[in-house]
Amino acid sequence: MPANVSFEFSIAQKKYDDAKTDEEKIVALQDMVSKAPGHKGAENLRKDLSRKLSSLKNKIEKQALTNAKRSGNTINIKKEGAGQVVIVGLANTGKSTFLSEFTNSKPLIAPYPYSTTKPEVGILNYGGALIQLVELPSFLENHDLTSQIYSMIRTADLCILIIKNGLISELETLIKIIESKDVFITKKKPKISFTKSDFLGISFINEQNLLVPKAQAIDFLRSSGFRSQNIILNQKTTMEDLLLLVNPRASFVPTIIVSMPFARNIKKTKYKDLDVFDFSQKEEIIEKIFELLEKVIVYTKKPGQKADKTEPLVLKKGETIVDAAKIIHKTIYKNLKSAKVWGSTKFPGQVVSKKYVLKNHDVVEFNV
């Protein structure tokens, strides 16, 4: 090890040496990589840290899969509706109560921990858009289902973290456990992309955004398998951002926090960039869920008739008249000339082009 490592690196090294579990070692190694010296003499050190980190993560995943096969415990919940929302929390925080209140599901609600032993599914109806809510068991550590639970969180469209009485200490514990699995809820996906270069070597576009010594960044990317790439930096970029960029396991899940009032209510507030709601703020929670799913509800009508609001179309934000027509019928899509829209237009029933971007609760009349 190079003699001129920083004090912060030495602290991370001590945490690694004292770690008793593979999960604790992974957290310490990630910290060591971010604080490793950037000079040429530390190249082998950085490569060794990256190899150890990759090896430990693969070991944990393989062990989890083996345990799941032996026990016969599996989770297989197909995504349905306008989006899949997972409800996550520590034991006895009120996840089942939340699911029961917001959906048609009637899960077991018990005063003892781990009463939810398998995922419970309910449907939240938002103006005709059906949203799938899945309450996950609290087996976030050391259980046969743990790896599958994290797979569901990774692929979910939204995560709801449940805590008791607005306890920030409980929230921070929950976040630490989840993010140790490379499922990030307090971090956003770095606005960094890369393209294949015709020339050997690594080059940076918008290099002024690089907050790491260039030689250190290039050395790190090379040790992670980059050879001939243009790295496009669309934000101020730290070593932590580069770590997220090269981490194939990293996933970024939109998240809100709901406090269950076992002893006291709280007002809506913030934790970092995350919204924190009290359980009693039902309408606000539902609106936020739909907002973060980045969908819009659109109603259709026939000429001379009222809008059909029983079965709305559910579109992604930014989709247009022609996207809505594709969902209804290929004949309408092929023959579509224009449309009239009520809601987001300047005038009710305004004629718009096929490329008009629809907004939430718009009413559309197609002209074919």
The fraction of residues assigned to DSSP E strands is 15-25%
| Helicity level | 25-40%
Counted by DSSP, the helix tally is: 11
The neighbouring-strand order within the major sheet is 2-3-1-4-10-12-11
Summarize the entry for a quick read.
The protein is of the alpha/beta class. It contains 11 helices and 17 strands. A hairpin with a 7-residue loop joins strand 15 and strand 16.
Which key features would you list for this structure?
368 residues, alpha/beta, Methane Monooxygenase Hydroxylase, Chain G, domain 1, 4 domains, five-stranded mixed beta sheet, 17 strands, 35% helix
Question: What does it look like?
Answer:
The protein has helices spanning 7-18, 22-35, 43-71, 95-102, 146-155, 168-179, 214-223, 239-246, 282-292, 321-328, 330-335, and strands at 84-89, 120-126, 129-135, 158-164, 183-184, 192-196, 201-205, 228-233, 251-252, 255-260, 269-271, 274-278, 295-300, 308-316, 338-342, 350-352, 362-367. It is globular and about 80 Å long. It has 4 domains: 1-72, Methane Monooxygenase Hydroxylase, Chain G, domain 1; 84-187 and 251-292, Rossmann fold, CATH 3.40.50; 190-247, no CATH class; 295-367, Roll (Ubiquitin-like (UB roll)), CATH 3.10.20. Helix 1 runs antiparallel to helix 2. The chain has a 7-stranded mixed β-sheet, sandwiched between helices. Strands 14-13-17-15-16 form a 5-stranded mixed β-sheet. The chain has a 3-stranded mixed β-sheet with strand order 6-8-7, covered by helices on one side. The longest helix is centred in the N-terminal third of the chain and has 29 residues, at 43-71. The protein contains 11 helices and 17 strands. The protein is an alpha/beta fold. The model has no long low-confidence stretch (mean pLDDT 85).
